[in-house]
């Protein structure tokens, strides 16, 4: 079997992906969807290896036969339990477990070496720990129904799959972005933007701009959209920052958080080179939400808890007693002397004290929600309005009306 989408001369290949036995049949494996327009692709019967690289030429995507149903797909169709996939290690794993714990949904893992666990608060739900990329892959294959992972991983390995739905797109941990960086020295010393990098005369068909990245799908799309010519992408499992110093790459396309690692390796991020921003997201399979019993309900509860907790995380409950002849008088003082009035307004209720064997009202308790940065300002204002005995406590949840994200999810599922 041999297939060449471009001539061998134009194939400056730098990425080797071995599929072993998968290459022996007549069907091109679905993993080759990694090779999109702008990639050169060659499949040789002599070696079960796919070589791909970015070229200036645009080639047509290969056709794919529909694969036969496997035993694994049959078992997924027969599965009755819901499956939630979580990152198995790294800062995304830590952030995910902390979020679930803060939402009163701690993950119970009886053996630290096991990859399966559960959440006692959610019945009929299995938790599977996977590598981040495998969370997305197994969502697409139907092995799991829901997952929590970085948006960058969803965008790269999801490859715009319409079956992947973002249930919650801002879980507020793992914030970073994907961007292009070059050395601060040599021919790049005066290069500060992506346009300046693209305009450098050094890049030719024979000597393309070499970019090392772990994001070939996003990288190829981005570079084509920006109109860069003569670019070659290569992959590496880690330590991409070493590529330019070693001479194996001219630039890198990698995740950036604080930028410290770039600076420590004499690299600088280019203006206009940011591909996407990323943080933890809650993603689910549309097919599973519609067809597998219990998945939609589990997704709803997880979404409700995430929304309520994230909204409450920066808020505190402030309670104080205030003298007044009536609740109306106390409310008037609050609006006159304070700037924090709660979510919709202060809650005011009478405080009963002993008046010689008879209960009398001399104080009113006021309750408001205050953002964390405004706590001390709110306390000073309450004192000025006549408040005393001020109590401050953190909130766990703020459940408001049904979350907007839930309504949007139902619309995507054509259930509204």
Automatic annotation (TrEMBL):
Spell out the CDD domains in the cross-references.
PBP2_HisGL3
Q: Which Gene3D superfamilies match?
A: 3.30.70.120, Periplasmic binding protein-like II
Q: Which reaction does it catalyse?
A: 1-(5-phospho-beta-D-ribosyl)-ATP + diphosphate = 5-phospho-alpha-D-ribose 1-diphosphate + ATP
Q: Does the keyword Glycosyltransferase apply?
A: yes
- Per UniProt, residues of the Histidine biosynthesis HisG C-terminal domain are 312-396
Q: Which GO terms describe its biological process?
A: L-histidine biosynthetic process
Q: What's a Pfam family this protein contains? A: HisG_C
What protein am I looking at? ATP phosphoribosyltransferase
Q: Name the species this protein comes from.
A: Riccia fluitans
